[in-house]
Amino acid sequence: MLLRTATRPAARTTDALRPAVRWGLGHALPRTVIASAGRRGDLHGQLIVHTSTSTDAPVELFDAIRAQGPLHRARYAYVTATLPVVREVLANPDVRAGVDLGTGAGPLGRLGRWAHRTTPMGPLTPPSLLVTEPPDHTRMRKLVTRVFSVKAVQRLRERTEEIADDLLTSLEQQAGAGRPVDLVEAYCALLPVTVIAEVLGVPDSERHTVLEFGTAAAPSLDLGLSWRRFRTVERALSSFEAWLVDHIEAKRRDPGDDLLSQMVAARDDDGVALTDRELIATAGLVLAAGFETTVNLLSNGIALLQEHPDQRTLLAAEPDRWSNAVEEVLRHDPPVLLTGRTVVRDTEIAGTRVPRGAVVTTLLAGANRDPDVFADPHRFDVARENAADHVSFSAGRHFCLGAALARMEGQVGLQRITERFPDLRLAPGATRRDTRILRGYERLPAVLG
User: Fold this and answer.
1) What are phi and psi of 46, to 5 degrees?
2) Residue 220 phi/psi, 5° resolution?
3) Is the separation of the CB atoms in 292 and 438 below 8 Å?
4) Which of 1, 54, 154, 180 has its CA 20 to 30 Å from the CA of residue 434?
5) Residue 127 preceded by cis peptide, ω within 30
6) What's the CA gap between 253 and 80, in Å, rounded?
7) Architecture of domain 2-447 in CATH?
8) Per-residue confidence (pLDDT) for residue 8, from 0 to 100
């Protein structure tokens, strides 16, 4: 008993050190060395520095990287902003999702693996679908894909329209006589979180909690977080995981007809169910990704349409173009800036030999402006014939599971607010989110007119 008591403080001290090591290896060290390379002219380093200090899309850097060739060899990574090469990377079986920082070979790798033993579950933590590869990825994805099929999403459309109309009525009441309202808080966030909460059977009383969790955890995708931000994110992820455990158990005790109840009961062809960790990871990803990126799609779309009144006029005259307009919003200002990959076997990309262990950064937003694919790529044009050729939902085996849902919510949300308030105008005070990978608005004040 005395021995057990004596070891407890040491164990607590060890556990307390792990987050500091995770932060050092995963954020402080790479931020320092990559930024240093950027100051010496490295384009990848300049990209990381830009996204760390500015919320503007680094369009000039996209063009500069593309000008270096289809696959640019930077100091610490290969980088591409060429659309066919982005697709090639994302479909390559020798390239897996995610970037391991501090978990490779050697002393730093051993230290990293030790530190990651207490990592809270998050979107980049296995067995999340974002970083899991076949065969587990195939098995897990198959169990949830049918719920996000085009047919399933179309059945949700009428309910999404009802939610949008209710929110817009509430918005009108809040606005009163010309007072500005924050469209992100009162509309762009509430529409997708209400839809995904209903899909996953989250009670009304807990939806605000889910919204807070998603917002707090969004920076977990970023590189180079400050220590304070890193700790805030990890605490949010830990709280979200605990909430998910309780929510899943509630569905086991009292299943409904929602997606989560179906996921708990689902079995593959061999009768195998998702493990508890897989359920937590998948439910968390669906819940967070199911509204976080759609918040960005809606806010980016509203801002773009306000900046281009000629495009609003065209949509008013030809409402059949709304579906394509959503694709153009996704292309021009995508909710996700880039994604990272790691080469697991020596391979060839765009005619270049790329060695095992190399990191490849695919610039989704840059590929969406590839001039060899999109004519006049920096122009926002809702009538663009090939707008849907973007890679904003990624590509290959990790193509976004909720793409059909996001597209439907984007069309309903943008069309409903534009037609309901044709004289809407943005007020001063719009601010972008300070997240680096996810791109959208933190605040979007507007007068409804």
Assistant:
1) -65, -35
2) -60, -20
3) yes
4) 180
5) yes
6) 48
7) Orthogonal Bundle (1.10)
8) 55
Q: Which amino acid is at 293?
A: T
What distance in Å separates the CA atoms of residue 259 and residue 273, rounded to the nearest whole number? 15
Cα dihedral across residues 158, 400, 130, 278: positive or negative: positive
Angle between helix axes 309-317 and 276-307 (nearest 10 degrees) is: 100
Q: Are the beta carbons of 369 and 378 closer than 8 angstroms?
A: yes
Q: What is the pLDDT of residue 288?
A: 72
C-alpha closest to that of 98 among 78, 120, 123: 123
Report the distance separating Cα 131 and Cα 113, nearest Å: 16
Residues 448/175, Cβ–Cβ less than 8 Å? yes
Q: Give 225: exposed, middle or buried? Use CB within 10 Å, 0-12, 13-18, 19+.
A: buried
Task: For CA atoms 180, 185, 189, 194, give the dihedral sign.
Answer: negative
Nearest residue to 243 via CA among 291, 294, 209, 274: 209
> What DSSP element (H or E) covers 380?
none
What is the SS3 assignment for 182? strand
pLDDT < 50: residue spans in the chain = 1-7
Structure tokens at 416: 């409903």
63 CB neighbour count, 10 Å cutoff: 16
The CA-atom distances, in angstroms, between 156 and each of 152, 192, 418 are 7, 12, 21
Enumerate the β-bridge partners of residue 182.
445
Locate 348 and state its tokens: 């060839």
> With the CA atoms of 144, 146, 150 and 154 taken in that order, what torsion angle do they form, in degrees rounded to the nearest 10?
-90
**DSSP letters of 30-82?**
HHHHHHHHHHTT-HHHHHHHHHHH--S--HHHHHHHHHT-SSEE-SS-EEE--
Q: Which strands sit side by side in the sheet containing 425-426, from one edge to the other?
A: 181-182, 445-447, 425-426
Separation between Cα atoms, residue 417 and residue 301, nearest integer Å:
11
DSSP of 399-435: --TTHHHHHHHHHHHHHHHHHH-TT-EEPS--EE-S-
Q: Rounded CA gap, 194 and 210, in Å?
A: 10
**Contact yes or no for 280/121 (Cβ under 8 A):** yes
Amino acid at 156: L
Task: Please check whether residue 351 is in contact with residue 379, taking contact to mean a CB–CB distance below 8 angstroms.
Answer: no
Number of Cβ within 10 Å of residue 11's Cβ equals 10
List residues bridging with 360 in a β-sheet.
Answer: 78, 341
Q: 311 CB contacts (<8 Å, ≥6 apart)?
A: 304, 305, 325, 380, 381, 382
How far is it, in rounded angstroms, from Cα 267 to Cα 140?
A: 10
Peptide bond into 135 cis (omega under 30): yes
What is the Cα–Cα distance from 435 to 44, expressed in whole angstroms?
18
